[in-house]
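Curious: why this fold?
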Amino acid sequence: MKMRGDQIQERFKSGLKLFSILIMCAITGSSHAQWQITQAKKQSKGFDYYGLRVAYLQNGDYIVAGNLVDTIYLDKNNTIIPTGSSGIYLARFHSTDSLIWKSVFETTSSTSSVSLTEDIKIINNDNIVLAGSFKGSIRFPNGASKSSSSTDAFWMRYTTNGKLRALNTYAKAINSALAVNSDLTVAIGGRTLSNPAGAFICLYDSSGNFKSGGNHVFKGTSQNRDIVNALCFGPDNALYFSGKANGDSIGYGSFSTYIDAPNNINQYNLFFGKFSKTNQLVWLKGGIPMGKTRPFGFDMKQMLFQPKLNRVLYSGKFEGANYQIGKDTLATTSLVNSDSRKPIILCTDTSGNLIWHTSLGLNHENQRGEIFTLTPGSNKYWVTADVEHYLNTPLKLGDVEFKFNNKAFLLLEMDSFGSIQSAFGTDPTKKYKVNNVLSTTFHPNYGLKLSLVNNASDSIWLTPTRIEKGSYILSGFPCYLKAEIKTQTKEICNNESSIQIGATPQGGYFSGAVISETGTIQPNKFNKGTYYYSYQIEDNNRCKSVAIDSIVIHEPTPVKFTNLDSVFCPKDTLIALKSNVSGGSYLGNGVQGNTFNPSKAGTGIHTLFYNFINSNNCKSADTTQVRVRKQSECATNSIDVESKSHLNIYPNPSKGNIHIEFDMNNARAMSIRSIDGKVLIQLIAPFGGNKIDVVSLPNGIYYCLIETNTGILHIAKFIVSND
């Protein structure tokens, strides 16, 4: 259906309103590039809460793994349709998102299940390590059969061409942590299901065998639910760990240090420590909860080793109570006991001494948050977090200020010392529920990828991308792209010539009812009004930028000479000049102010002009032709003015040539003049035909004047339009 111009304009205005709603919160005071989610790739319509993970290879290819929750969309030509049993998949993609290979592993029995629970680990750019849990009888992809009466932890190592090379399991345990060293030593951690159920860490060699002395089971009471949630290797092959303790206390072997944990299944305390490369416990430390009357928890989900600084980073959340680590108090609120939840990043030295900590600036009541992921970049770290902020003051993250009073998902750039450098997020004016960001991976040339699960009732916007229900792989990039419209023309009249709007950087396109894609505005095609338009550009990183501007189109005031004869004698008195609109100026031979003096003008044909400029600075004009007769003609009292012109011009508007309908045998002179009276074409009889070439004339309004042999003037107006 074809729309009228006003319909197009209204639809464009509506689009601009929607666009303004979608733009994320304004960031002030930051010189860093703005982040954008440049692509959203939907993996499934279901919610893979635990398995969906992504990791880069050095050349920009990337690995995706996940659970078969329903149909998996790898790309437009490849899907995985589950057979009905639980399963997992692993796939490698080109940096351009095309599928290279896929591997699918499903159980053969409806009573058996398998799932991924940990981040993908890429080792030496040639090995892919996955970890999770299973129950029942399982036949793994390499043919190995495993059976578990309850639940067992497992891990698998693939080559980057999709071949399974090693795997092993840990009986009666759930997996919640994975770390792999450059020598392909694998460490998994979690909770055992035996009685007492306790935290464990187990190490395996490069062949997949248990490593001697590498099975670490922590001591706890019969009611405990202790668990190891994060692991990382240091460059000296030392293993750092973190977990949460529940049920009286937690310890290890004959090690003298025990971490006090509340004897309450709803209260958890942080513990963290270090094993040497010879599998000896070096130290074990924990937090001290300050107040124990409400449910509380201190939980670290991710760990990273900073090799240049020889430090360890931990990230997660703490809630319910304030904690003390060493001499530092980590406060959730001003109250000792609270249901508040805060994000937390800790930095310790290799002896476990706290160096710094940050809660992302959430240090007050009515602020909550949780850190999803912590990922190393080029001399920086990427943090994804879920933040709630219900204060009337802006939230300041480093030099970035978020003006919102609601809930948002944030992507933050952090330096090695916990200072936030740049930020990006959802629209903070709306309340969103982001269920989880399971993994992030960074590549210096291809940006950041995230695996995100959204099952909220409403979709979320990560400008300019809409995220609906389902499991997604998102691509993000720090976008330095900034579209700018370069024009000084904010108002124009619709009788003016076309204008060209400029914009930077080049390579984008304009859109809007008033403008062409290349930036041309032809005001003579539009009625008066305000017209919005935009300039959009996208670069090779899929970064997008939009600049919006408007132009006001005015109409000139129609003007016309009124009540004026066309033939005068030299001795006639001053003739009053009149028009339908006052306030303009009269020009021409013999014109004095608002009068015409035939004697001063002299014998012959004269063009008189009336020019007018209205309050919007729009120019309009009218012309008329008068003839001053010779005195001898005046003596005869002859009448030589026709009351009706017989001059006609076609086509009108015209381009190229005009055709004149007139008895040229009775014509003495002919001229083409501009609206200000300037003679552009002058012809004297004989004329050689009734066709005149006007292709060289610019677009505009012109007059054709013909004087007959008897002194009668004929005038016709025409328009030249070469568009």
Residues 1-31, 636-644 have pLDDT under 50 and may be disordered. The longest helix spans residues 5-22. The longest strand covers residues 145-159.
